[in-house]
Design goal:
With 46 residues, this protein is an all-alpha fold. It is 85% helix and 0% strand. The protein has 1 helix and no strands. The N and C termini lie far apart (73 Å).
Length: 46
Amino acid sequence: MREAMDPWIFVIAAYAIGVGATLAMVGWALITMKRAEKRRDETRKR
């Protein structure tokens, strides 16, 4: 039986959170850019 904690669980969790947050921010940015482009195009048509 080991008494020491395995640090790899925390390392993997940190990478998973980091990659997930990065992907979420990229998705959010893409959606926001599409909305802004749509508003710009609608404004230019008027």
